[in-house]
């Protein structure tokens, strides 16, 4: 009860912070950068190891530049995520823009073929803004797949935020059941594909950022089971607080793809995005907790 009470107080203060204008939030971010990076050194060892293993061809100085840029962006991402608690539709549409005038047409064209869509993204750029934007682009069923937080109060808070513009949030373990239940309806489902699977459930390793990486096969299994089109959600940061998104079609006919083909495609697209501008990926995540047993 004490933890729940303290959590509710924390939720109240987070909501108050979310009401602040962006320029104040980014001032807070600048201070937070000094605290997290300069003073505490939050997961600095994890970030350095991840960067060293991912970019062995870069010099130490080049990796240090990426490291500093990453921590600056991480602090921006923290305050932007808090902002989602009270952000308006208009503000999301102003800050998460389609890459071209034809970007959203792909979604409409796939729906016109009677197919549902699996939108695959990574922890790159502001995926929370992107999920809110996707929930506004169509009136069809919109689903955001999430990994539940240990703290139920905060879990409910962020799920309420993610669903404010019409999307339904569904836990990762329940998504197949949900999509089978609505298989006769067209739906747009957004998933983050670069989380680390539980070691006991790992079925596939692929090469990602220069190292063997355990990958969820959920996207591929869902696509083949439901015959859904798969698109990669490519997010770019164009300036502080402003992003573009684009949908790259991976397959419209998943049942005719080879085993692991869909998985390798979305992993390759994410790696390409990260290599182009690396600081916007979640480098402080312990992504490589374990290796193949025969490695």
TrEMBL record:
Swiss-Prot/TrEMBL keywords: Acyltransferase, Cell inner membrane, Cell membrane, Membrane, Transferase, Transmembrane, Transmembrane helix
A matching Pfam family: Lip_A_acyltrans
InterPro entries attached to this UniProt entry: LipA_acyltrans (IPR004960)
GO molecular function, one term: acyltransferase activity
Membrane-spanning intervals of the chain: 12-36
Subcellular location: Cell inner membrane
Protein name: Lysophospholipid acyltransferase family protein
